[in-house]
Amino acid sequence: MAFNTMSESLKSREKALKESELKYRTIFEHTSDGISVYEQFSGNRRLVDCNESYAGMADRSKSELLSMKDVKQFQRNHRTTENGSDGQKDLEEALSCAGTFSWIRPDSRENHIEYRAVTVKMEERIFVYGIDRDITARKQAEEQVHALTQKLIMAQETERQRISRDLHDNVAQDLSTIKIACETLLDNQPEAPDLLRQNVSKLSDMLQGAISVVRDLSYNLRPPGLDQLGLVQTVFQYCEDFSDKNGINVDFYSAGLDDPELEFDTEINLFRIIQEALNNVKRHADAGYVAIRLVASYPDIILRIEDDGKGFDVKERMITALSEKRMGLRSIDERVNLLRGRIRIQSRPMKGTQILIEVPCREEKYDAEEKSNYC
């Protein structure tokens, strides 16, 4: 009786095991992600199992891959990670790894693969389970969004330039003409009462205030020096004006950017980032000193903005910024992403804030050899 019970129990376990294996194989074989199982031994790695999706990504047949004695036989063409290192070397150096890499297929199409791996040790054997996900379509969509965003920024800046020119050339000039007319209105009327003269003087002062506001609006919409003087001189002048108007000492220093003619989107976005950062300092930091360093260090442009203000909790601020409709930091982050750059924000309450930005150094007219001389 006991023997029959044990036999039935074994059969039940075998049935459950087969059902589990069937479910596993169904998922394994039919998922669109490439799944691979490697065994690690004596410094080598051998493919022991994979699905058809993985074989398709490798441009090999499944049987061909499984017949290879060592993973080193399998080399994807021009396989590189996002940071420029060799993907196959990364795979060899780490038992568990993760990242995104690109490689060129034999038909010259570029594929983007997101890779994740986990290592499992079974007694004396080590297995690496990897999942390759083809994110080429997602990358292409991101590129399209990036290109569209660039065009939108370009259109926005063009419209800002037009409005800035209209404000300066039309509105400000008309207000200046009216102000002059007010100041000369009573020149030939010595008998005009003092009260009337006082009212005209007040009106002239109001017009002068309106002219200043319009010119400030025009300048903030599109700094006129950006086209004629370049980024460095424009930022320098902006920092000087900001210091005078707000009583905050801004120390600006630049190196390596006196000569190159940067692309339009690089110049305007770097200027807008500095502009937004200084506005944030004025509104929230309660700072008395700001240091801005803009340095070309090929292949990047490095921008560092540091203040001695009251600081903040970075994670908390990024979470609450959207609900509070504070878009300053997010605007800076979006412009950095638009330039394919990197940003790091360090801040603590009562310890000030430091923003470090690195963006690719791109210019319009200079070739690679000339670039190395100044950037």
Provide a descriptive summary of the structure in words.
The protein has 375 residues and is of the alpha+beta class. Among the domains are: 31-134, Beta-Lactamase; 225-375, Heat Shock Protein 90, CATH 3.30.565. The protein is built from twelve helices and eleven strands. The strands form two sheets. A six-stranded antiparallel beta sheet has the order 2-1-6-5-4-3, with helices on both faces. A hairpin with a 2-residue loop joins strand 5 and strand 6 (125-134). Helix 8 (231-246) packs parallel to helix 9. The chain is elongated, with a radius of gyration of 32 Å. It starts with a helix and ends with a helix. The relative contact order is 0.06.
Which features does this protein show?
six-stranded antiparallel sheet, 23% strand, alpha+beta, five-stranded mixed sheet, disordered C terminus, Heat Shock Protein 90, Beta-Lactamase, 375 residues, single chain, 52% helix
